[in-house]
Design a protein that fits this description.
The protein is 40% helix and 17% strand. By secondary structure, it is α/β, with parallel strands linked by helices. The protein has 2 domains: 220 residues, inorganic pyrophosphatase (n-terminal core) (Alpha-Beta Complex); 128 residues, Diaminopimelate Epimerase, Chain A, domain 1 (Roll). Strands 6-7-8-9-11-10 form a 6-stranded mixed β-sheet, with helices on both faces. A 5-stranded parallel β-sheet has the order 2-1-3-4-5. A hairpin with a 4-residue loop joins strand 6 and strand 7. Helix 12 packs across helix 13. The radius of gyration is 23 Å and the shape is globular. The termini are far apart. Bound molecules: manganese (II) ion. The site of manganese (II) ion has 5 residues, from loops.
Length: 358
């Protein structure tokens, strides 16, 4: 596939530090950003740019957490070894951009780690709100759309439509549009007229059942089979610091029962993760569908009395915690529950923790 050959050439440019232009996606590094950056860089190279590279603004080791992107690209024999991540770029080239020219896609402002590139931005392709940055950029495309990949596809259709004669590239481009617009469902209020228009244009290059593609992408998103316990803990993790303690909350899309089949020592992984992040308290929230939506909760800290007071507080708030039938062994005090109060998401529990430790 031509994209893979392009990526191999881009890799050489990175190794030689001889690239001149960078197309960078946003630091959430979601499917939209990854596809937009890679396809746009490829399109520019097909238009004659010699030394352009796509850049994914996340660490190489974090790519596997993006199971949807991994799964989709893997279908076309592209894995993390073919892609360029932020830790592949020499720090000096980040700090002293010198001759670099930067094209930003799927965001309107470079994040902190790339602020040194602010004066080198030459083009912007974004579907977020225009906040009047990079006013001299050309093109400077801001449009409220479900997906930035719609803008990229429009650009390709205008400048290098033959790209889509390779069906794989049309499928790659249409995938984030499907995901970001929830399969073009008007009720979700994500899809715009332009998304629909461009989708219909790319669709002509695709022989695949697009409902099936959407379903596959949904499956890939929740498919955590390739992740180990540490990956599961960090996939969807948030951390807070207050005057009393540092605490973290991991959301895991897997039942404790299924997780234990992968790893009998979940609690050990939890303790190691606490150490890695210098945590005083870790909450692991599982959420999954098995005869309906279910939640479980694992709480680990270092003080048994405090742990039981804390759990009482959660119960008084309405979490309806009942002891999990199987006891998890741990060096630190640990409590494991079925959570009856299904409305208590991380967003709702975090303020309770903040209030308890104020
Ligand atoms: Mn986006």
């Amino acid at each position: 596939m031509k994209l893979k050959i392009f990526l191999q050439q881009a890799r050489v440019l990175v190794n030689n530090k001889s690239f001149k232009k960078v197309v960078v996606g946003n630091e959430s590094a979601d499917l939209d950003s990854i596809i937009s950056a890679n396809l746009l860089a490829f399109a520019y190279s097909e238009m004659g740019e010699q030394s352009i590279i796509p850049l994914i603004n996340c660490k190489r080791e974090d790519y596997k957490l993006r199971t949807e992107s991994c799964g989709l690209l893997k279908r076309y024999d592209i894995d993390e070894n073919n892609l360029i991540f932020i830790d592949d770029i020499d720090d000096l080239m980040v700090q002293n951009p010198n001759q670099l020219e930067i094209i930003i896609v799927d965001h309107n402002k470079l994040p902190d780690n790339l602020r040194a590139w602010d004066n080198s931005v030459i083009s912007v392709f974004d579907h977020h709100q225009d906040i009047d940055m990079y006013l001299d950029a050309k093109p400077r495309l801001f449009e409220t759309l479900g997906s930035c990949s719609t803008l990229v596809a429009e650009f390709i259709l205008e400048h290098q439509p033959d790209i889509f004669k390779d069906e794989a590239l049309a499928i790659l481009n249409i995938s984030p549009i499907l995901v970001d617009t929830v399969n073009l469902d008007p009720e979700q209020e994500r899809v715009t007229e332009k998304d629909r228009l461009i989708y219909n244009k790319i669709k002509k290059f695709v022989n695949l059942d697009l409902q099936k593609l959407y379903d596959d992408l949904q499956f890939m998103k929740s498919d955590v089979s390739s992740l180990d316990s540490r990956d599961l803990l960090r996939k969807d993790y948030k951390q807070w610091v207050n005057k009393k303690l540092t605490y973290g909350m991991s959301s895991v899309p897997l039942s404790i029962e299924d997780w234990l089949k992968k790893d009998e020592e979940i609690s050990k992984a939890g303790e190691a993760y606490m150490k890695e992040n210098s945590l005083d308290l870790l909450l692991i929230m599982t959420a999954y569908v098995q005869n309906g939506f279910k939640r479980e909760l694992i709480v680990i800290n270092s003080d048994a009395k405090l742990l039981s007071d804390f759990n009482n507080m959660l119960n008084q708030a309405g979490l309806e915690l009942t002891d999990y039938p199987q006891k998890l062994e741990s060096a630190k005090p640990i409590a494991t529950f079925n959570q009856g109060g299904l409305g208590f998401s991380r967003k709702k529990i975090q303020p309770l923790i903040e209030a308890f430790f104020k």
